[in-house]
Amino acid sequence: VSSAAANAEIIAVGSELLTPGKIDTNSLYLTGELNNLGVEVVRKMVVGDDRARLVQSIRDAAAQSQFVILSGGLGPTEDDLTRDAVAEALGRPLLFNQDICDWLEARFRSFGRKMAEVNKRQAYVVEGAEILHNDRGTAPGQWLAENGHILMLLPGPPRELKSMFGTLCLDRLRALLPPLAIRTRFYRVAGIGESDLDQIIAPIYTKYANPVTTILSTSGDIQIHLRARCSTEVEAEALLADLGGQVEAALGDRIYSNNGDPMEKVIGGLLRDQKASLSVAESLTGGMLGMRITSVARASDYFRGGFLTYTDEMKITQLGVPREVLETRTAVSEPVATAMAAGARSRTGSTYALSLTGSAGPGGEDDGHVWIGLATPDGVEARELRFPAGDRDRVRLFATNTALNLLRRKLCAL
Amino acid sequence: VSSAAANAEIIAVGSELLTPGKIDTNSLYLTGELNNLGVEVVRKMVVGDDRARLVQSIRDAAAQSQFVILSGGLGPTEDDLTRDAVAEALGRPLLFNQDICDWLEARFRSFGRKMAEVNKRQAYVVEGAEILHNDRGTAPGQWLAENGHILMLLPGPPRELKSMFGTLCLDRLRALLPPLAIRTRFYRVAGIGESDLDQIIAPIYTKYANPVTTILSTSGDIQIHLRARCSTEVEAEALLADLGGQVEAALGDRIYSNNGDPMEKVIGGLLRDQKASLSVAESLTGGMLGMRITSVARASDYFRGGFLTYTDEMKITQLGVPREVLETRTAVSEPVATAMAAGARSRTGSTYALSLTGSAGPGGEDDGHVWIGLATPDGVEARELRFPAGDRDRVRLFATNTALNLLRRKLCAL
Q1: I need a labelling partner for A84 at 20 to 30 A (CA). Which of B40, B120, B161, B297 fits?
Q2: What's the pLDDT band for A5 if we cut at 50, 70, 90?
Q3: How many of the other CB atoms lie within 10 Å of CB of A50?
Q4: What is the complex's ipTM, to 2 decimals?
């Protein structure tokens, strides 16, 4: 199998994967693992419990692609067609394997149950196949060579498939492929829109076919993945350092993470290093900011807590926001954001406090209007944001992202 | 096309859909719409930018299935192979269509841009195809009949595909299919595990092939979908009422929603109806409970706010939890949970208050141990929960689900 042309097809078997709510996640896992070996996935299929279509699909794939991975259809019922379909597609007989049968019977015995006759179907093996032991279920896998092409029959449940592929197939595949070193770098960026970011770094990364650059964006949080493929690790790291260095220089402190850590974790690390503490005061986000901060283990090292002041009355009684400011300026205003942050800081005794007030909508005239407050030992500042109205969850997520980034920049500037 | 056998294949075109992070969501949408017409999806494929494989895949699908839907590969670049591949698979020429070309040029002009020569590729149509207008992008779709089978060429971007399929393909498909009425019912259930629930209702729903029953479960929230398919709406509704009535009788008030509404919305409705208000006091969940309650629009009708008391000191100063109770009983205990709920209720003046205290982990001996408090006009109660330690997010989600369900049962019992 030559490296340049190594390719694979993945066939998922089972009618349940052809319903509107089901995703074949096995193929995503397999694609990642195959790519790491330098193998490209050229076609994926999902085939229902339909023997003729399955036989034809297997035959086509095995004729055209070096590796064919089948997932599912190895259970004990009539619907489990993969063994029979592979045997028919390759024109080989299915042979009964006494060792598998004994193992299955012992497995059932160990659970205090007697094996049903139907389970003997799982003891049939395509002639010439190596058996792949299943350490997490009853369906054994199979590994087959046919005219220099390889077929793998793997169980459908993701935890069984991942264990079998990871422990039994990866090494076999590596032995057939030239050595390949893959190295990745995973930046996260905040405080810039995706198109503005692309305008800055596209002139850099488009010059490189290797490393491959992928950009993903969700609600104000952008991820940049660099992936270098070389025959040695040293070469791959050198490529990453070359491209990565240019990306870092171009984006500066808009990069908040160079190892994929989320913002909450980065902020937690900065607060812990500075022996500083944090509290929050939330209105429109109703707890999302606190929830995100405490999604990181050991957040109690720096997080004191906070106030969900959803009503004006709560802002007055719990945070000391002056009633006349709420009445004259409304709750979505700079003085309310700063008073909330200052109130949270003084009432908790934390080093820093973040506040969020705004209107997420839908239904109001001011929807999408948000004020962020940040109280520090040096004073209080505020930032105004405006989002397109309409998507409540998106406004809230974007607002918390922006608030966390405001704090990060303050912590980094120290 | 006969109803019993109506089947379809979906082919997504584009190498970007063969990467580890990409899901072909179009096929999920299309499967749902086709199922609603009584058409079963029998195979799905994702094919990269590889003309030979694509031609073969189209030829196989068109020979075997009544409907073949292709998505993607209709753009203006060399990589956009769908038009050429369909033409080759069916042995028909591609014809230049001046109307499309004029429309494309006008579209570019309206954005103040001149159309690039390469965009003329999008003006080619397979001989005999009807053109499907794209109201959201530049790539027109095509509708083709071949030996009584139908091929649809649709654009890849989901918003373009959905609009084109919904406005131009659904009616054409309906005209080819016998009438079919689909009716669904969507229950949500809390306070019971999935296997216990299945033991109760499996003897009921397994007697029915129609309606079809689907059960989905995530962290203490279970959804039961019933889907009836008949030739008339009256028949479908009668089947749903028959099966649904038995499911409702078996599960009683563990069903919290019979229209798919999430728990937060159900509770909001109950509070609004009873002109009651709510506040929260959160420790381990750090704001998740408040965030969930305020994820519903107009939550300000009943939600006052709350307290994120992550430290012992915050529990003492903000909620009046006695210091000696924290010292003698620890923060994860019944008296702390009840004092937190009572403190939140008295300090906000709300009708009800929910509290959550516990250890989400990882790293502590008591991980997965949670106490929930509920303060009402009649007093305070508490509930203890223990989860398998290890998954911080799962413990927090399960804890908030259980807390919300405790409140719901109280509100329903009134």
Answers
A1: B40
A2: low
A3: 19
A4: 0.78
